[in-house]
Amino acid sequence: MLKQKIFNRLFTEYRNWVYRLCYSYTRNQVEAEDLVQECFSKIWIHLDSFRQQSDYSTWIYRIAVNTCLMQLRKEKNNPMEFHEELKDRTSEDQDDEKGQQSENLYKAIAQLAEMDRLIISMVLENTSQRQIGEVLGITENNVNIKVHRIKKQLRAILLSLNN
Amino acid sequence: MEKGFEELKVLFQQKTVSESLYVEVVDKNSKSKLAELKKNHIKTIATFLITAIAIVCIEEINSMHMETSFYGFLTLLGCALYYALSQTYLLYKLNAIKPYGSTLQTIQELQRYKKINIFMSTYCEMLYALVVLAGVYIYLHPVLEKIENSLFYFWWILGACVMWMLFYTLSIKRTRMKKDITIIEKHIQSLTELE
After folding, report:
1. Residues A78-126: pLDDT tens digits?
2. Interface test with A, best of B7, B14, B191 (most A CBs within 10 A)
3. Domain tally, chain B
């Protein structure tokens, strides 16, 4: 039952992180939750083969990132489906001001390039640059440069959205 | 500038996943485990239905060349159909388990399925093996009676078959059954931990 215990701990610890990452890609609550389910199903299946060569967090980030990127590929291959789903992309949080701001932020993130979305999501989750580098397979220095550029870009998009 | 970014972090981290998601995730994982059991049942059902068809075909061909026992044929056909039916019943019982209709109910259904599975894989399996052997003997008896010394060799072959069936039932089948039971027990455990 060790597997179940480890899984429960990982789920509790990372579910929101994975959800926010998926949401920043899909901007749809149902779709994002489906992706979270898919991620954690993969985690459950591969938990036995996890070799502890990296942290659980890095491993989970990689699974989540790959799942999101796979989803994006699928959507690109089915543009009609993607277009139709866009209509539904409204959030239940839009009622209050904070919710609106949060929604704007996700909207802005959605306008970034694929990889940039991922990086900024990790930065916004307080993930260290070393870990971001490990997940993406790039150097810490490279991450630093990218983060600086993406932050600037994100602010510009947010500004245009708020105006 | 960094202060503004800290605010963005707060906004970003505002979103949280719904509480019911854990149940859905575990449900999905459990379903994949139960799906494995279902697949095994379906495979066995298909194998024994094919066996039943094969028995009918063999009887059709044999009846043209030699005299065989009709009761033996019926016994063998009945055995193959019984096995397919018993597996269908187990599959039906497994399909009746609806995870998260109510956790308690699911656990009870799983335990019921476990008991039936153990009963069928032990006592029924032994009985089945004995009836199959008897069926083979009855089926071939008219042929054996006509050939000199054949009964002597037949008993040796039948003896070997009995040994193989005992080994198959008590060892191979038992190992498979234990594997199935482990899957069910793990599923029950994961449900219990949810409560």
Report:
1. 554 444 444 444 445 455 777 788 888 888 888 888 888 888 988 998 8
2. B14
3. 1
End-to-end CA distance of chain A: 54
Number of domains composing chain A:
2
Q: Which of A5, A28, A101, A122 to mutate to test the interface with B (most CBs of B within 10 A)?
A: A101
- A65-83 confidence digits (pLDDT tens): 888 888 877 766 655 444 4
Across A129-154, average pLDDT: 88
Alpha carbons B127 and B130: distance in angstroms, whole number? 5
pLDDT band at A35 (very low <50, low <70, confident <90, very high): confident
Containing structural domain, residue A50: 1-90
Task: Indicate the residue among A52, A67, A90 that finishes a domain.
Answer: A90
Distance from CA of A83 to the nearest CA of B (A): 24
pLDDT given at position B195: 41
What is the ipTM score, two decimals? 0.77
Nearest neighbour of A41 by CB, restricted to B14, B25, B186 = B25
Minimum-distance CB partner of B11 among A15, A44, A101? A101
Tokens of B151: 């009964």
pLDDT of residue A8: 79
Whether A105 and B9 lie within 8 Å, measured CB to CB? no
- Residue (of A21, A65, A18) closest to A37 by Cα position: A18
Identify whether B63 is part of a domain: yes
Secondary structure class of A25 (helix, strand, coil)? helix
Residue A121 touches partner B, C-beta closer than 8 Å: yes
Query: Torsion angle of alpha carbons B159, B164, B169, B175, nearest 10°?
Result: 160
> Chain A: nearest CA to B193, how far in angstroms?
9
Report the mean per-residue pLDDT for chain A: 80
**Alpha-carbon torsion A76, A79, A82, A83, what sign?**
positive
Q: In this complex, which of B16, B29, B186 lies closest to A41 when CB atoms are compared?
A: B29
